[in-house]
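Deliverable D2.4 — example input (structure tokens):
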């Protein structure tokens, strides 16, 4: 990825996983993203829930967003 993305909500620098899970949960074609913390607030769950989801999608190996 050429340039750094930052969270639309809090301005934190985003990592590939943050962007991938946002695409997965919110909008695959998104070009603005939330970090895991802000995503958890939006979805009404916890950061740990989202981290578990990331692990899950990665472990399935079926989602091309997680490599
Ligand atoms: Zn954020």
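Example output (designed residues):
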């Amino acid at each position: 990825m050429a340039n750094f993305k930052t969270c639309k909500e809090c301005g934190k620098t985003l990592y590939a996983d943050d962007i991938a899970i946002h695409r997965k949960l919110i909008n695959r074609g998104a070009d603005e993203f939330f970090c895991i913390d802000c995503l958890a607030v939006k979805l009404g769950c916890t950061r740990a829930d989202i981290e578990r989801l990331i692990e899950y999608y990665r472990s399935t190996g079926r989602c091309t967003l997680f490599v």
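The mean pLDDT is 88.
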